[in-house]
């Protein structure tokens, strides 16, 4: 079930947080409301890490990651990098990359199997993405928009794209990503990736989201029947495996 | 761009717009900038906020005009285009939105309400353009406009008057002027027209109307005028003065067919034109003809009024002559379109046939022996004119005994007596001035008018600027044309206009055939 919240009166939740199946990053806010909203849903299931990147709080736009790894831009300080490496689980590889387009969250939309990349990303970066995140990378645009990370919200079960995407584009993307896609709005706006933070069993969106939009989100990401325990149990199994 | 693609053979994927759910109501709709369906958008945003929905306008029931403050009154019909433009102009703030369409919604005229439905377009949210229509109600209040209220207070109120005078003993000029004015519609804006002794008064509501009337007069007769004004009221605070203007217009007393003895200065100024001259035509110039030399001169209004001479003998004093013998013309001339021939004739007065005169005349081209002619009897006339006396004393051989002016058609007219004319004329709506003890004799007026009509028949150039209408009662008589070889001159039927008559059953067109001139 999707939750509605705000970060310091701003409805763009996806900009101030990064949610994956293995961990969650949140920005440091003056009040604890944002953090406690995440905690109430995810406490004990996955680690929730409070951080900045390069002193900037809009971490969702700056970094990109999935359960296998996390990519941070070159503006990240060493301290922050170390903090991330300490706080996140060991199998999550944290990599700092040197890329001209440093807002990686805006440029890359990914789930655990496949990623969409900004068409102008460097070849090297694409290789690193494939390597660190363990995904297949496709350079694509969504409804003629090149910032794929902002205009697409993706999880392993489904995705939402910019509402002006044509039917043919939608079919093409769906084939590439192997997940059902829908063109819709979040927070009544076109920028869907920035407005929602989603993983396989839960989603957080801005408080401007209408009930209709919430129902669309629930149906496409299949959140109604999702339980965290089944997925994390699988993860725990692999964890225990490595210990042993 | 698709044409270019077809040229290069590039394959362009067809893009179908999908449908998204409206974020408020969930109904599927094509995506738009506001991400809401039209109804939800309309419920969210009202673009007509802050626009005027009801307003008061003033209407003058007398003249059917609407007030545009501060002072202009605009004439408009009920539910017309002008009224729509006026109504929209009265709305304030309408420049914030774009006006797409405006139309009237029917209201009962007695309700004193006008309803206009406006469709406006404005931009809302993030670039979505919304169109909305809303009604505006106008309350109509009755309020007499200034000119109507002034008219109601005193219907005879005039602001400018033109007093037209000619100091001669006949009214021929005024009959002719009346026809000219009717033809050119010059007095259409006159509030009142009054006929007085020796003239006509015209009353106008506006000084500029009076001015344009005087300009018209100046083009058709030689006039001299002066303007005077009288203060009616005075607003001290705004220094506005209301005046009544009076124009005193004098028409020159020289008429057609007058005999004039020119003062020596004028005669020498015109190249020693023989002081005895006949006036042949009066329009904005006076044309005078010397009957002995067949020389012609033109005097315009300014030249005339500088010397201001009067005629010695006028058409009242014309005497009938019998023409016995006409000799061959010794000279011919064409002056101002008219042909004249100088020849010697033997004539005698009708009253005294025994006394024969042998005189020179300029009418040699139309006179034949046995004709009758009208002329001035200088031999026995007692002329009260200084110039004439001076000339009589100065000249050696004495004055000519008679000067013939025109041919007389009385005999031929006798045969047609009692039969109606082929044409009729219209009249100006004039009031008779009873109050000042006018000596107007109705029979005299009839005779004068009859003479004027005869004049029109005889002179085609007089008819040039006048409209004559077909007489409905006149029937062509078959016998008249066969018996006499030369009938009295009449107006040819091609020059007559048929009156425009609009009746329920039939409609006669206005068939104005080409005029001769």
Outline the secondary-structure elements.
The complex is a heterodimer of chains A (244) and B (517).
Chain A: E1 2-5, H1 13-16, E2 17-19, E3 24-26, H2 33-42, E4 48-50, H3 59-62, E5 64-65, E6 69-72, H4 78-87, E7 93-96, H5 104-107, E8 108-110, E9 114-117, H6 123-132, E10 136-139, H7 148-151, E11 152-154, E12 159-161, H8 167-177, E13 181-183, H9 192-195, E14 196-198, E15 203-206, H10 211-220, H11 228-243
Parallel strand pairs in A: 1-15, 3-4, 6-7, 9-10, 12-13
Antiparallel strand pairs in A: 2-3, 5-6, 8-9, 11-12, 14-15
Chain B: H1 2-8, E1 20-21, E2 28-29, H2 38-44, E3 54-60, E4 65-68, E5 72-75, H3 81-90, E6 98-105, E7 113-124, E8 128-142, H4 146-153, E9 160-165, H5 172-184, E10 190-196, E11 199-204, H6 207-220, E12 223-235, E13 240-251, E14 259-261, H7 264-269, E15 276-282, E16 285-290, E17 295-300, H8 301-307, E18 318-326, E19 331-335, E20 338-349, E21 356-361, E22 372-377, H9 386-394, E23 402-408, H10 410-415, E24 423-424, E25 431-432, H11 442-458, E26 469-470, H12 480-483, E27 501-502, E28 507-508
Parallel strand pairs in B: 3-8, 9-13, 10-25
Antiparallel strand pairs in B: 1-2, 3-4, 4-5, 6-7, 7-8, 9-11, 10-11, 12-13, 14-15, 15-16, 16-17, 18-20, 18-22, 19-20, 20-21, 22-23, 24-26, 27-28
According to DSSP, the number of beta strands of chain B is 28
SS class of chain A: alpha/beta
Largest sheet of chain B: 6 strands, mixed
The amount of helix of chain B comes to 10-25%
| Count of individual domains of chain A | 1
CATH class placement of chain A: Alpha Beta
Low-confidence region ranges of chain A? 238-244
Q: Find the CATH topology of chain A.
A: L-arginine/glycine Amidinotransferase, Chain A
Number of helices of chain B: 12
What is the tally of helical segments of chain A? Answer: 11
Task: Using the alpha-carbon principal axes, give the shape of chain B.
Answer: elongated
Shape of chain A: globular
Q: State mean pLDDT of chain A (0 to 100 scale).
A: 89
Strand content of chain A: 15-25%
- Whole-angstrom Rg of chain B: 38 Å
What average pLDDT do the residues of chain B reach? 81
Q: Major sheet of chain A: order of its strands? A: 1-15-14
Oligomeric composition of the shown chains: heterodimer
Largest sheet of chain A: 3 strands, mixed
**Spatial extent as radius of gyration of chain A:** 17 Å
Keywords (chain B): Cytoplasm, Nucleus, Protein transport, Transport
Domain Nmd3 N-terminal (chain B): 22-251
Function (chain B): Acts as an adapter for the XPO1/CRM1-mediated export of the 60S ribosomal subunit.
Protein name (chain B): 60S ribosomal export protein NMD3
């Amino acid at each position: 079930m999707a939750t509605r919240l705000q970060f310091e009166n701003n409805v763009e939740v996806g900009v101030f947080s990064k949610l994956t199946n293995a961990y969650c990053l949140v920005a440091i806010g003056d009040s604890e409301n944002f953090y406690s909203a995440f905690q109430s849903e995810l406490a004990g299931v996955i680690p929730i890490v409070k951080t900045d990147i390069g002193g900037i709080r809009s971490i969702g736009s700056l970094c990109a990651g999935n359960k296998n790894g996390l990519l941070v831009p070159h503006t990240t300080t060493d301290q922050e990098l170390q903090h991330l490496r300490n706080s996140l689980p060991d199998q999550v590889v944290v990599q700092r990359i040197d890329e001209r387009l440093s807002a990686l969250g805006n440029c890359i939309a990914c789930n655990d199997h496949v990623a969409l990349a900004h068409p102008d990303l460097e070849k090297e970066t694409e290789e690193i993405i494939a390597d660190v995140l363990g995904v297949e990378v496709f350079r694509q645009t969504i409804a003629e928009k090149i910032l794929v990370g902002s205009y697409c919200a993706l999880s392993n079960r489904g995705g939402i794209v910019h509402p002006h995407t044509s039917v043919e584009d939608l079919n093409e993307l769906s084939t590439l990503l192997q997940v059902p896609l829908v063109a819709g709005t979040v927070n009544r706006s076109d920028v869907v990736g920035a407005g929602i933070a989603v993983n396989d069993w839960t989603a957080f969106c801005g408080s401007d989201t209408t009930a209709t939009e919430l129902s669309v989100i629930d149906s496409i990401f299949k959140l109604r029947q999702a339980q965290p325990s089944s997925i994390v149990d699988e993860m725990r199994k692999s964890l225990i495996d490595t210990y042993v | 761009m698709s044409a270019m693609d077809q040229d290069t053979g590039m394959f362009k994927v067809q893009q179908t717009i999908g449908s998204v759910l409206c974020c408020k109501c969930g109904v599927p709709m094509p995506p738009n900038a506001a991400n809401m369906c039209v109804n939800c958008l309309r419920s969210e945003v009202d673009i007509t906020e802050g626009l005027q929905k009801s307003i008061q306008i003033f209407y003058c029931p007398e003249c059917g005009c609407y007030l545009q403050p501060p002072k202009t009154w605009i004439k408009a019909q009920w539910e017309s285009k002008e009224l729509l433009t006026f109504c929209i102009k009265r709305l304030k703030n309408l420049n914030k939105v774009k006006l797409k369409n405006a139309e009237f919604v029917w209201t009962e005229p007695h309700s004193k309400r006008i309803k206009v439905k406006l469709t406006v377009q404005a931009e809302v949210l993030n670039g979505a353009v919304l169109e909305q229509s809303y009604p505006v109600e106008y309350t109509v209040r009755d309020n007499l406009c200034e000119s109507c209220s002034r008219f109601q207070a005193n219907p005879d109120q005039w602001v400018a008057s033109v007093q037209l005078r000619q100091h001669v003993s006949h009214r021929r000029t005024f009959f002719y002027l009346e026809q000219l004015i009717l033809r050119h519609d010059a007095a259409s804006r006159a509030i009142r027209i009054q006929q007085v002794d020796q003239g006509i008064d015209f009353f106008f509501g506006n000084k500029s109307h009076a001015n344009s009337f005087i300009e018209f007069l100046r083009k058709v007769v030689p006039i001299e005028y002066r303007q005077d004004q009288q203060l009616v009221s005075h607003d001290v605070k705004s220094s506005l003065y209301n005046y009544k203007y009076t124009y005193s217009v004098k028409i020159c007393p020289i008429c057609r067919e007058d005999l004039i003895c020119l003062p020596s200065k004028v005669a020498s100024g015109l190249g020693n034109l023989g002081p005895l001259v006949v006036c042949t035509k009066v329009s904005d110039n006076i044309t005078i003809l010397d009957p002995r030399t067949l020389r012609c001169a033109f005097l315009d209004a300014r030249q005339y009024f500088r010397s201001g001479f009067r005629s010695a003998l006028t058409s009242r004093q014309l005497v009938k002559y019998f023409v016995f013998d006409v000799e061959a013309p010794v000279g011919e001339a064409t002056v101002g379109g008219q042909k004249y021939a100088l020849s010697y004739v033997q004539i005698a007065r009708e009253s005294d046939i025994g006394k024969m005169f042998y005189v020179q005349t300029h009418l040699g081209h139309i006179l034949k022996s046995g004709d009758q002619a009208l002329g001035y009897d200088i031999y026995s006339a007692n002329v009260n004119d200084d110039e004439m006396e001076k000339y009589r004393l100065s000249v050696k051989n004495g004055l000519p005994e008679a000067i013939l002016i025109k041919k007389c058609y009385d005999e031929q007219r006798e045969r047609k007596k009692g039969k109606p004319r082929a044409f009729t004329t219209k009249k100006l709506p004039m009031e008779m001035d009873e109050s000042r003890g006018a000596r107007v004799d109705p029979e005299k007026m009839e005779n004068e008018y009859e003479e004027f009509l005869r004049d029109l028949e005889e002179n085609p150039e007089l008819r040039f600027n006048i409209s004559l209408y077909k007489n409905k009662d006149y029937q062509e008589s078959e016998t008249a044309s066969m018996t006499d070889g030369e009938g009295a001159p009449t107006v040819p039927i091609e020059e007559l206009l048929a009156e425009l008559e609009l009746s329920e059953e039939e409609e006669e067109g206005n068939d104005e055939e080409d005029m001769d001139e």
